[in-house]
Specification:
9 helices, five-stranded mixed beta sheet, alpha/beta, single chain
């Protein structure tokens, strides 16, 4: 693969139904003198989807339909389907679509499409540090807790310091989607702000701090709820509980109070 020729295609093919649990990146790159495409599907959810083959076929068909080929003699470029799966569950389903279709008609008329699955959690973080490219960086992110990443931004940046601007922008876009999936609701557009590695570092630190702050805020809310429940079991007036905890009356009424035996 000629990575110096790699370009990110500025379009996403993931359907609205799956936009919260997966993301896609499409690259155009030269391979042995010919142009090919690599369709990378990033699966965030931990569950294993039996229908992944059909989703790949849908996305890749959409990609082919976007090609403008007025010359009917020329063929479309090849597309390599690559799945990055970060869940803890074992990927147990076939990656060949024909295996999921009843063979009640001749095999020549049954669709064939195979994707290449990469199980991110099977790669040790220490080994990833020795592989300096954007794929190892993505694996490193998915194998790390947000708090760990905040301390290891420099290690992460070292993995991608040789990548070109196109790859860095694509990586920043993916990180934005990944951290949003973890629970960060502030999905600000960051792609246009990435100009260099320092920009990537700033983006990482900002998003991870936002995520950590959200967890801290949720922890305080949980403590308030626990206090309110204890006060309710002791028959404190709701107005007094609201004043003590800062919770609204509606929030207090929605809490589940253990029944006395």
């Amino acid at each position: 693969l000629d990575f110096s020729s790699m370009q990110k295609i500025d379009k996403e093919y993931v359907s609205d139904e799956y936009v919260e649990t997966e993301s896609d990146i499409v690259y155009k790159i030269n391979f042995e003198g010919k142009e090919i495409y690599i369709f990378v599907l990033l699966e965030f959810q931990s569950t294993v989807d039996k229908l992944m083959c059909f989703r790949f076929m849908n996305y890749i068909s959409s990609l082919y339909l976007d090609f403008n080929k007025p010359d009917t003699k020329s063929k479309h470029p090849a597309v390599f389907p690559l799945l990055l799966y970060s869940g803890d569950n074992k990927w147990k389903y076939s990656n060949e679509i024909a295996d999921l279709i009843e063979d009640t008609i001749p095999g020549d008329y049954i669709p064939h499409l195979k994707y290449y699955p990469v199980l991110v959690n099977s790669f040790a973080k220490e080994k990833l540090k020795d592989i300096h490219n954007v794929i190892s960086a993505m694996f490193y992110v998915e194998n790390s807790d947000p708090d760990e990443l905040l301390k290891e931004v420099d290690i992460l940046l070292d993995l991608i310091k040789e990548e070109n601007t196109e790859v860095l922008n694509a990586f920043a876009s993916w990180v934005n989607s990944y951290l949003s999936y973890l629970g960060n609701d502030d999905k600000e557009e960051i792609q246009d702000k990435i100009e260099d590695l320092q920009g990537v570092k700033t983006m990482f630190e900002t998003r991870l701090k936002e995520y950590g702050g959200r967890l801290k805020k949720e922890g305080k809310k949980e403590e308030k709820n626990e206090t309110a429940v204890k006060m309710l079991t002791r028959n404190y007036p709701i107005e007094e509980i609201s004043e003590m905890t800062g919770l609204s009356i509606e929030e207090i009424k929605s809490l589940k109070v253990p029944q006395k035996v």
